[in-house]
Amino acid sequence: MTDRLPALYIGHGAPPLLDDPVWSGQLAAWAADLPRPKAILIVSAHWESAPVMLSASGAPLVYDFGGFDAKYYRMTYETPDASALARRIAGLMPADEPVHQHASRGLDHGAWVPLKIMYPDGDIPVLQMSLPTHDPVRLLRLGERLRPLRDEGVLVIGSGFLTHGLPFLTEWRIDAAAPGWSVDFDLWAADALARGDVDELADYRAKAPGMPFAHPTVEHFTPLFVTLGVATAPDEPGVQVIDGYWLGLSKRSLQVA
After folding, report:
1. How many Cβ atoms from other residues are within 10 Å of residue 64's Cβ?
2. Where in this chain does the record put each Extradiol ring-cleavage dioxygenase class III enzyme subunit B domain (predicted)?
3. Which end of the chain is more exposed for a tag (fewer CB within 10 A), N or C?
4. Which CATH class is domain 7-256?
């Protein structure tokens, strides 16, 4: 028997994802099919900070969004103490990539929104790690350093959105038709992921159709490289568990062994 868990790259949506029965159902079913984690480490697009930082265990949630219903600002997601996981992560980092514990930052919506769906009881220790760079090579290396956590029952998640061209959306409906740039980038990524072509994915700025509209800023794509780095063999195709579009943006999500 092994406690080894896969690693995930998920689209995290916005707070209204919590009220979307289709996508929230997909995330809940996915989590139910996974071995139960002993702890969760999640890297969200919404915390860009170098050097590498870890969230404060038990800190209040970060409501890093605006213009939504007031109920989302009252939501909570309390999880058990994750200090042991923080110490373990610190021990995995080399001298040239130290990890620091933030004194007061809690989980942002790129972490707590999907986790509230996937693990609604909040009974699993959770830490969030900052995204220290957008360099795919460095993020792959960071993921590789985190790889031993999988054998210890830790679920590592990169949380972003496979396309995220919010400034270029013309319709703001969950069922809006996907723009051409979103479809083109999504299909390109799906093909590269199916072939395990990490080099192609890493050269997305030059090779991906739909750029820069799909990612005018790239923080929602680059958590993918942490996930691929955590994979036992990054160039082995993973399982694309969720696909389709939300607001016209690709919610394609990946599980790697």
Report:
1. 11
2. 26-232
3. N
4. alpha beta
